[in-house]
Amino acid sequence: MMSLLLVLAAMIWGAAFVTQSVGTEYVGACTFVCTRYILSAAILLPLGFVKGRKGGKTPLTRESLKRAALGGAVCGIFLALASLSQQLGIETTTVGKGGFITALYVVGVPLLGIFFGKRPPLKIWLCVALSVIGLYLISVKEGFVIEKGDALMILCAFVFSFQIMSVDHFSKGTDNLFLLAGFQFLTTAVISGIGMLLFETPRWSDITAAGIPILYAGVMSGAVGYTLQMAGQKYTDPALASLIMSLEAVFSALTAWVLLQERMSGREVLGSVALFAAVILAQLPGRQKKTAVKQQKDKE
Fold first, then answer.
1. Is the pLDDT of residue 65 over 80?
2. I need a labelling partner for 74 at 20 to 30 A (CA). Which of 144, 190, 216, 264 fits?
3. Which among 169, 150, 138 is positioned nearest to 70, based on CA atoms?
């Protein structure tokens, strides 16, 4: 069930990639990121306080509020850096290469997990390799040359690995995911808002012109998508979660096919199959788990 939440988040993010690209035509990166996450925070923070007043495993106390604010701030710093570098990268690189490079957090997460004492099994590494091949086939249509936009996307993928690991850590310590996500978005909005005031000249007319992309990115990709991520990661290994969420590259291609009538080539279909295969293989029980299940059935 938790894996399905992450798949749904990947679907939402896949479609959001198109809206982010459209948003660059009207507003700067800092303005887009700030406004989208203001919306996300405005939706989730009130829900978090309402949930806290009704009680739960972690009722809204001064200590739980402090813990949610601290966790949200840490996650929000990483999300701000990742989102800003991604939005800036979208302005100067192709959507295909940008999508491929961003999804390379599937490599970064298990690597970071080693430093946190979480050593992924060999099967996960094989799935990561298969997913990278799939992402390459889906996204990279031309020669792979690292340019300015590509470098920003590499930074984005690197920081998203930290965001995923931080969500894995803090989501397991709270029952109020709305509050945790809300503080994450508030932190991201504040950081990007400072950049907006320092480096850009935001105009209300430009923001309203980008209204639909901002609304989708703020409500669906932000409030819904990242809350699904936190809920799904609460009970899912971060390396497996990153593999599932990398399906956003597939859903991005499917969204373009449905909305823009862009047909998938044989190369893209093959890449999608490879990526889906990696996700399914990663979730199959290993030999030890199968043995444990068999022994439990024998006892019964």
1. yes
2. 216
3. 169
